[in-house]
C-alpha cells in the first residue's frame, strides 16, 4: 500500500494539447510520445517556477511588491544558462517616464496630422462645398 501512494500519477500543469501543438511546430517532429509530452510539460512548469521565484527574489531585493519585466531581465542575467537563450527574446524595458502618468498630455489636435489621400475630416463634411474647398487649398 505504501508503494502505491508514492507512485501516484501527476497531472501536468499545462494543457497537453497545447504543449503537443507547440512541440509539433518543429518540422522534424511528427508524433509525440505521451511520456515525452509529460516530461516537456513538467520541465516547462519547473523552469517557469524557477524563473518566477528568482524574479520575485529580485523584486523583494528592490523593495517592490509587483514583479516587473526589469526583475525578470535581472534574474535572467544572473543565471547564465537562462541568459544564453532567453535574454535576447525578452522585450526591452520601456523608458522610465519622469512625469506622472496623470499629467501626460494628449497628442496634439487632429488638424496637425496629414490626411490620407481621398479622405476628409468630419467637420469638412458639414461645411458647404465652397468652405471645404478653401480649407483644402489653404492646407
From TrEMBL:
GO biological process, one term: regulation of DNA-templated transcription
UniProt keyword terms in alphabetical order: Nucleus
Molecular function GO labels: protein heterodimerization activity; transcription cis-regulatory region binding
GO CC list: nucleus
Comp. bias regions, Polar residues: 95-106
InterPro entries: CBFA_NFYB_domain, Histone-fold, Transcr_DNA_Rep_Reg
Signal peptide segment: none
Region (Disordered): 83-120
Cellular compartments annotated: Nucleus
Transmembrane helix keyword on record: no
CDD domains: HFD_POLE4-like
Transcription factor CBF/NF-Y/archaeal histone domain segment(s): 13-75
Membrane-spanning ranges: none
Main subcellular location: nucleus
Name used for this protein in its record: Transcription factor CBF/NF-Y/archaeal histone domain-containing protein
